[in-house]
Design goal:
The protein contains six helices and nine strands. It has 255 residues and is of the alpha/beta class. The chain has one domain: Rossmann fold, CATH 3.40.50.1360.
Length: 255
């Protein structure tokens, strides 16, 4: 069935610098998780890798912020992962573990990492199964995350949905192994339908090297193959772009 989705206007929040962006992201995170727990008793969040969320995770792990969330009611996932062991320096899981998980009273059973050491294809299949089990959804249904954290690359990719890669066309899977020839590797990633179903997506972007990609993603001519982050234009929930001045400098609204 062909998708019929109305284009959704993003919320753009321009911050003066990376420190202000981290504080804003912290408040969005805390409020989204607390709201979900209040409504249904638990919350599901998908984390991202990269340098910008690193500061967010450190902030969330610090008191008094860490005390604002009932962490035993939070389930943490990852939107994508590199095909490396969990202790590898490039592992998204390792970064989150060192900056966030090691400092929180979160049950190990609530931490759902991608088992990338099994190989990309097997890890993707296992992760989709785990997602369905945790959310209690059947094949054909798409889980709804309370919050998915994303970044954007200078090439316009988000999660590990890179330009002109096969995963961009996938509509019948939640998680896939995505071969990325331009960087010579395969990544495990959420697919577009899973990202688009979230109640809230927050995109974090800092620095001048992201400015062109941000402008193309939000305001550019539609071309998801060239700028995969444009898939957020068809999101079902809220999409909030948290940008520092440099990252948002090429938006028409910034001028």
């Amino acid at each position: 069935m062909k998708e019929q989705r109305q284009m959704r206007q993003p919320e753009i929040v321009m911050l003066p610098d990376a420190a202000a962006l981290t504080e804003a992201a912290t408040r969005f995170f805390v409020e989204a998780v607390r709201s979900a727990i209040a409504q249904r008793g638990w919350s599901a969040v998908a984390l991202s890798g990269g340098s910008t969320p690193r500061a967010l995770y450190r902030r969330l792990a610090q008191p008094p912020v860490c005390e604002e969330i009932k962490w035993h009611r939070v389930h943490l996932f990852w939107g994508d992962e590199r095909a490396v062991p969990p202790d590898h320096p490039e592992s998204n899981y390792r970064m989150a573990k060192e900056t966030l998980l090691d400092h929180l009273p979160i049950p190990p059973a609530n931490v759902h990492r991608i088992l990338s050491e099994r190989g990309a294809d097997a890890a993707a299949e296992q992760y989709e199964t785990e997602l369905r089990q945790v959310f209690g959804v059947t094949p054909g249904e798409v889980p709804v995350f309370d919050l998915i954290l994303l970044g954007i690359g200078a090439d316009g990719h988000t999660a590990s949905l890179f330009p002109h890669t096969a995963a961009l066309a996938v509509r019948d899977r939640l998680v896939v192994a995505n071969e990325v020839p331009q960087i010579g590797t395969t990544r495990i990633t959420f697919t577009a339908p899973l990202v688009q179903a979230a109640a809230l997506v927050i995109v974090l972007a800092t620095g001048p090297d992201k400015a062109d990609a941000v402008a193309r993603a939000i305001e550019g001519p539609k071309d998801v193959e060239e700028t995969p982050a444009q898939l957020l234009r068809c999101a079902q929930g809220r999409v909030v772009w948290l940008l520092d001045r440099a990252a948002g400098s090429r938006l028409a609204s910034a001028g």
